[in-house]
Give the backbone structure.
Amino acid sequence: MIVCHCQGITDHDIHAAIDWMRASDEQTIITPGKIYHALGKSADCGGCMPFFLQTMRANDNLEVPMELRGLRHRGLTQDQRNEGRR
């Protein structure tokens, strides 16, 4: 099924890119931008993004590796989390 009409990306393309990225690097964080890049394309109008994300989430290989979960908040003070902004 076509997910992105602007770039001609199908659900099969998205799943293949996710599977390829996970096989080549088990600890990578997979984002829509990385998928577009892996397919040699770039986002255009963004109208497909909700369906694109839904298709990504349906892939079992999308999960963040266990050892990378929760790193953002570990050991940071309130000021460090907000990068010094109020």
